[in-house]
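User: Please run a holo structure prediction.
Assistant: Happy to. Please share the sequence and the ligand.
User: Here you go; the ligand is protoporphyrin IX containing FE.
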Amino acid sequence: SRESWLPTLKTDTPEEGYELAVKLARKAVGMTQPDESIRKKLRPVYASNADSLTLASQVVAINFQTVAAANNYWKE
Ligand code: HEM
């Protein structure tokens, strides 16, 4: 069977949790637009637009809230 791309939300550190939040955001883009050539074509568009980058950051921030909660905010 195929390995899960999201076996757990648990991470050892907040930094790894943030990287997971980015991964979740990019996975959603890959699922909503499976055509790599279209994604590559759109990359320079969003990469040079401040509002697009702010929105991408916002999606990551929302995911980070979920990941942080799932890790009990990395409290001992
Ligand atoms: C690259 C994040 C939306 C297409 C990247 C990279 C990050 C990122 C961090 C750099 C990865 C690296 O250099 O290793 C995000 C986030 C998004 C988002 C957080 C939205 C929440 C999109 C959308 C598209 C897209 C909407 C196109 C439809 C790409 C492509 C690359 C890329 C093609 C690779 C560029 C290259 O080959 O250098 N993205 N992205 N991304 N993104 Fe996004």
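Residues 22, 25-26, 29, 33, 39-40, 42-43, 46, 56, 59-60 surround protoporphyrin IX containing FE (CB under 6 Å).
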